[in-house]
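cron nightly-structures :: item 1 of 1
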Amino acid sequence: MRKLFTLFAAFVLVVAFTVPAMAAADWNFFGSARMTTFVEIDDPPEPADSDTDTTWTLQGNSRFGANVKAGDIGGGLEIGIKGDADGNGLYTRKLFGTYTFGDSQILVGQTYTPVSGMFYSNQVWGGDNDLLNCGQAYAGRRPMLRYKINGFQVALVQPNAGAVGSLPAGGDTDVLLPKFEMKYHMKQETFFMDIYAGAQTFSVEYKGTNNDTDYDVTSYVAGIGGGADFGPAFVKANVYYAVNGGTFGLAALGKDDPYYDATTDDIIDVDTLGAMGVVGVKAGDTATIEAGVGYIQNEYDVDDSNKDDAMSVYLNCTINIAPGFFVVPEVGYFDYGKDHADQDEGKMTYVGAKWQINF
């Protein structure tokens, strides 16, 4: 009986302290329902035949969440919903807290990393692809410790110890340092600019029959982007260079992972160059027309290496039906180029629309 009384008293104390704290905080809840409705025509290399399919489903970046503010303390939560024929799956998109003091802010938790929070393109195919794998640097939402002051931010991010192709089995991966990322964002009335970079290193231990060998895998990325408004028209562009982007965690078409070369007993790096650009015009509050192109190229650091490249182009129109409700018809094309073996990888054309209601 005494234990029950103690538990009840503890519960009362928790409620007594929690309810006033929640009441003092400013909670702003939101949601976003997104449907993708596209017809995709795949044109694979010969002798395979072309194939046409329709994608008609809830987008995986549909979400609900809240932004919270309580004085100098803030935070955010986003839960994503993946829809399919068998039901829905929930996952954590964002969960972070912030402490703001003066012009500075400390963030603890998971959100877009410094090299990932840039969305210059509004390509909606593929669940809002945004050219993130074909010209725009993107490393996702990861747990991190981030410091931000004015337009500058630096973060220690959860490392991404990706695969190293052809490395002999039997060893383990040792990660001693977190991933480092930084970005400087400058914004004026009619233009903006982003300068960003990141680096990561880890080692793979191989236990051989005669000796143990540690192979160091270092990856980094650096890029610059920006945009400008010219009345109702706008333009945005980005270019980046990466080494071992796959192990860094960058989204990319083609193979951008390093591999182990047994003849030299070394890790062979892969260099990636990505570039993209968009132009558009706003027709008041009714519609926005946008065209974009992206390109990516991966090349191994060996003599006579073939480039593994790809290109994407699209044209769309965002039509505002009501506040928070819009539809984006889009037509686009992917040329997957050739792989590292100089083999054609096919093409794909798509047409359809994204439907979205924010509430």
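cron nightly-structures :: done
Residues 1-19 have pLDDT under 50 and may be disordered.
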